[in-house]
Design goal:
The complex is a heterodimer of chains A (275) and B (316). Chain A is α/β, with parallel strands linked by helices. Chain A has one domain: Thiamin diphosphate (ThDP)-binding fold, Pyr/PP domains (Rossmann fold). Helices cover 40% and strands 11% of the residues of chain A. In chain A, helix 6 links the parallel strand 2 and strand 3. The two termini of chain A are 29 Å apart. Chain B contains 13 helices and twelve strands. In chain B, the strands form two sheets. A seven-stranded mixed β-sheet of chain B has the order 2-1-3-4-6-5-10, with helices on both faces. Chain B has a five-stranded mixed β-sheet with strand order 7-9-8-11-12, with helices on both faces. Chain B starts with a helix and ends with a helix. In chain B, 53% of the residues are buried. Classes of the chains: A alpha/beta (275), B alpha/beta (316).
Chain lengths: 275, 316
């Protein structure tokens, strides 16, 4: 992969903008899960602005679109600014999240243009994505199925039913990105059940697994581009090491960051500091 | 005597030859009739393993991509292990998108009599009724199940098919499309007292009506096979010709099952018809024995039904 410094500079700028917009949304919609949404910023940015994903905002049912299933639904508020920016809906809508009459909830639903499925409840996305992936293969199509999983979500048994299925059925059009931010709701994941390294768990079930710094757009881009192109008859997982609450020091070190809100003044101060 | 699932699977098998959009997914559950289907359609039959949650999720993904899916498992595990998958991925999505998923649950009520309470299925009517956008089909014989093959392909909605696990005698020689879509059929026209039943209990209702044929008034029998959607207007008209309605179901009563459906239809229009409910009280069944024996212990046997009828006759 040729490092393209213009692209990575562009991705970094977009990530910075998305992080700020996400904080602004949290300012008006305090029920949004801000820490969980901040850890996934670079993942969404790389997928969309890096054109890893094929999409067409003008045609939601476009046959050639790659499918994106966001299993950690609550952590996808940072996806809203991107959807607006690339044309799925008006940017003005970002000011209405969680308000009366808005289609943008504090946890996303598939009434939002750009969302394929509803995943407010955890543990469903991967299995549904396996069904989509299988459908595309049976139709002889080349589109990919991307899935964003949280690491806390890996405690759901249904995830592992799907992991086993995908490996056995060699779903090589399936690319899972784990937002490995290490924190679930009440504690660090390792204090709940320590899964150790995640990549070997997936490899045992016949997956191709890679690990990456989930806030480094350069590494993310190269890893995703490679996973998309590689010819191997296996489902792929990219374990993206991230920091829950990335960009907000108070959240970055808090085991309870998932349930912490930021007050308006605090957000203003952070926005002023973020370049 | 034929099993509903065998007739239905045979129908789907035949349709799979012409229609390449049909998928059959099983949670490691079979039937002799399934053997040739899974042999011939290796690409469109998938055994997900003993994994009901994944059964529903995989089926959802396929249906979102436009396939018609049959998801097949033992009824209590299909409906209760995977309830949230059915709620979030099937029922909720169906409000926004066209998805054709047919959930085939085998083992309604006490079909698996001697397997005990884990395998009994007394809750599914209540649970599936409460989910929006889900068709609830509870046939009493294989003829209805056969009729449902066509419906399952044409009506592009999620559906729950509540099949008995045992072969049962034929009730319907023929059923008109209009009757089928109404969701119920008055099998025996009677006076004063009507038995309203679903699934296997319709066989018992018919038998009781026959046993009491020398009574001063004929006991009526209505079979409800489509609990949702049901033509409630016509159903209520049928009920209103009686003084008493007695519901019979191999399911829990007083908590959202067939009895509650009948009560809510009557209640909405302030029907004067009085209601008695026969089914399982608020307890699981650990007793061992045949289905009929378990009916006797739980007052679902013919004699108990007749006693209830006689009690109603006393106050008509």
């Amino acid at each position: 992969m040729n490092p393209n410094s213009d692209l990575f500079e562009y991705l970094k700028q977009k990530a910075s903008w998305v992080r700020k917009e996400t904080l602004k949304i949290h300012k008006i919609a305090q029920e949004t899960r801000i820490a969980s949404s901040l850890s996934a910023v670079e993942i969404f940015v790389t997928l969309y602005y890096g054109k890893i994903i094929n999409f067409d905002p003008a045609n939601l049912r476009w046959e050639k679109r790659d499918r994106l299933v966001i299993s950690k639904g609550h952590g996808a508020i940072s996806f809203y600014p991107i959807l607006a920016d690339v044309g799925y809906f008006d940017k003005g809508e970002l000011g209405n999240v969680g308000q009366e009459g808005s289609f943008l909830g504090c946890i996303p639903d598939c009434i939002i243009p750009g969302f394929e499925t509803t995943n407010g409840a955890l543990g469903h996305g991967l299995g549904v994505a396996c069904g989509i992936s299988l459908a595309l293969k049976r139709k002889g199509r080349n589109e990919k199925v991307f899935v964003i999983l949280g690491d806390g979500e890996l405690f759901e048994g249904s995830i592992w039913e799907a992991v086993m299925f995908a490996g056995e059925h060699r779903l090589d059009n399936l690319i899972v990105i784990i937002d490995h931010n290490k924190v679930c709701m009440l504690d660090y994941c390792r204090n709940v059940i320590d899964l150790g390294s995640l990549d070997d768990k997936f490899r045992v079930f016949k997956w191709k697994a890679e690990t990456v710094d989930g806030h480094d757009v350069y590494s993310l881009y190269n890893a995703l581009a490679a996973l998309k192109e590689v010819k191997e008859d296996k489902p792929r997982v990219l374990i993206a090491h991230t920091i829950k609450g990335k960009g907000v020091p108070r959240l970055e070190t808090d085991a309870l960051s998932h349930v912490k809100n930021l007050k308006a003044e605090e957000i203003d101060a952070i926005l002023a500091e973020l370049k | 005597m034929k099993a509903m699932r065998d007739v239905f699977i045979e129908g789907i098998y035949n349709r799979m030859h012409q229609d390449s959009t049909l998928f059959f997914i099983s949670a490691d559950f079979g039937s002799p009739k399934l053997d040739k289907l899974r042999e011939e359609f290796k690409d469109r039959f998938i055994n997900v393993g003993i994994a009901e949650q994944n059964l529903i999720n995989i089926s959802t993904g396929l249906a979102l991509e436009g396939f018609t899916v049959y998801a097949y498992a033992i009824a209590p595990f299909l409906t209760m292990r995977a309830y949230e998958q059915i709620r979030v991925n099937v029922s909720l999505h169906a409000q926004l998108k066209e998805i054709n998923i047919n959930l085939i649950g085998v083992g309604a009520g006490l079909s698996y009599d001697v397997s005990g309470p884990t395998h009994h299925c007394l809750e599914d009517i209540t649970l599936m009724r409460t989910l929006p956008h889900l068709v609830l089909f509870s046939p009493s014989d294989w003829k209805l199940a056969e009729k449902f093959v066509d419906y399952s392909i044409k009506i592009k909605k999620p559906k729950y098919l509540r099949f008995d696990g045992k072969p049962l005698p034929q009730i319907y020689s023929h059923i008109e499309d209009s009757d089928f879509l109404n969701g119920f059929k008055e099998l025996v026209k009677g006076e004063k007292i009507c038995l309203v039943s679903t699934g296997i209990m319709t066989h018992k209702a018919i038998k009781v009506a026959h046993l009491l044929k020398d009574s001063p008034t004929q006991i009526g029998v209505i079979d409800i096979f489509m609990l949702k959607p049901l033509n409630e207007t016509l159903f209520l008209e049928a009920l209103n010709r009686y003084d008493w309605v007695i519901t019979l179901e191999e399911a829990f009563i007083n908590k959202g099952g067939l009895d509650s459906l009948v009560a809510s239809v009557m209640g909405r229009k302030n029907s004067k018809v009085r209601l008695k409910r026969i089914g399982f009280e608020d307890a699981y069944v650990f007793d061992m024995g045949s289905r009929e024996y378990l009916h006797q212990l739980n007052h679902l046997d013919e004699k108990s039904v007749i006693n209830t009828i006689e009690a109603c006759q006393g106050v008509v």
